[in-house]
Amino acid sequence: MHLVAIERVNVYERDAIKSGIIRLLAPLGGMGAFVGPGERVLLKPNMLSAKPPEAAVTTHPEVLRAVVELVQEAGGVALVGDSPGIGGIDRVAERSGMLSVINETGAELTEFAESVEVSGAGTFKRFALARPYLEADKIINLPKLKTHEMMTMTCAVKNLFGAVVGHAKAGWHLKAGADREMFARMLVELYLLRKPDLTIVDAVIAMEGNGPGSGDPRQVGLLLAGANAVSVDVIAAEIAGIPKKLLYVEQVAARLGIDGADRSTISTAGLSVDEACVADFRLPHISDVQFGLPPFLKNRLRHYLTSRPCVMPEKCRLCGICRDACPPHAIEIRDGKLHFDYHACIRCFCCRELCPDGALDVKDGALSRLIKIFL
Which residues pair with 158 in a beta bridge? Predict the structure, then answer.
């Protein structure tokens, strides 16, 4: 059985978070069960972009602080690393409040700059992953529980996509991002290359709606932890009430028989799932109404069936971040306006994820809107 611990913590107060994480890890054997003296332990928070903690875009700095201190108390050397979606790691760490924690605790901020190519054993034969991620003695995964416009939920497994360095993420979106199930398969295969030793989820304040960068903070008041990241995702999704048909990563993991995907093999400690459940957790505004169409027809009708990003001119300051981040280069600035090439757009929503001003919205395709009227 895979054990997932659930603990109630309602505020990001320093002592409350640390004592909450100690209680959280107790059923799993405490931090000492995962970290040995002298081990270099990479902490992998969500460092998507340079947003303040209250925006709920990144892992909260007090969660990071508590884990760093517990790693150090167990004799480990704490490293903090990620590859932000936009902006340098120093800027993101500073704006998110993590840099002050790193400086105060004596942890080491580790930039994911150099990649190492590793062989995959599934559909995707080669991955280039950050050297510090591969070479750390132990990895502690520190995701934020958020909605995600492409994968519906980003939590334990999706957070590991940060091991892909910088602009290589755009390449993966271009290669696998046109199909949600294919992208989910890539995430699962990446996870299998180097599984984290421990996952601790920051869900004290989660993100609902149009996450992972443009959603709304939602008080949930929970911390979750487990040694198996897939099992942690299964329980997190159950707590948020997300339908299984929308959990692309978990569906792929179950089809592949990945350890931890079968709910019957997961037990919980601390709060029960029923006690932890969140009512009316708002999901992203996504639609992909393709009804199992054959590929040749799906490709022809995709523009009319799927949701797509669109600009809100009153908020857009034409900074060009979305244009530069777009994997298929489907965005351009022309005549003082933002223009989308929807036939090239792969609906990965990287533009919305990285827009610093929340200036991009989602619009249903014409046939999709019609279908919703009559359903």
Answer: none
Tell me the H-state helices in the chain. 14-25, 61-73, 89-95, 98-105, 131-135, 156-159, 168-176, 180-193, 229-240, 248-255, 273-276, 295-305, 321-325, 350-354, 366-374
- Other C-beta atoms closer than 10 Å to the C-beta of 317 total 9
Q: What count of Cα atoms within 13 Å lies in the side-chain half-sphere of residue 1?
A: 9
Query: By the 8 A CB rule, do 90 and 69 touch?
Result: no
pLDDT, tens digit, for every residue of 212-257? 998 999 999 999 999 999 999 999 999 999 999 999 999 999 999 9
Sign of the torsion angle spanned by Cα atoms 124, 128, 132, 136: positive
Q: Are strands 360-363 and 308-311 parallel, antiparallel or unpaired?
A: antiparallel
Report phi then psi at 32, rounded to 5: -65, -20
* 17-21-22-26 Cα dihedral, nearest 10 degrees: 160
Q: What is the DSSP string of 16-36?
A: HHHHHHHHHHGGGT-GGGT--
C-alpha torsion 200→205→208→212, nearest 10: -60
Residues 55, 320: Cα–Cα separation, whole Å: 22
Give the pair of three-digit tokens for residue 302.
């995709």
From the list 57, 100, 58, 74, the residue with the least C-alpha distance to 21 is 74
Res. 109 pLDDT band, cuts 50 70 90: very high
What 3-state class would DSSP assign to 95?
helix
In sequence order, the 6+-apart residues with CB closer than 8 A to the CB of 300 are none
Contact indicator for 89, 164 with CB cutoff of 8 Å = no
Which CATH number is 2-276's, of 3.30.1490.20, 2.60.120.10, 3.40.50.11440, 3.40.50.300? 3.40.50.11440
What CATH architecture does domain 295-374 belong to?
2-Layer Sandwich (3.30)
Angle formed at CA 107 by CA 106 and CA 111, multiple of 5 degrees:
135
What does pTM read for this prediction?
Answer: 0.87
Domain-by-domain residue ranges, the chain?
2-276, 295-374
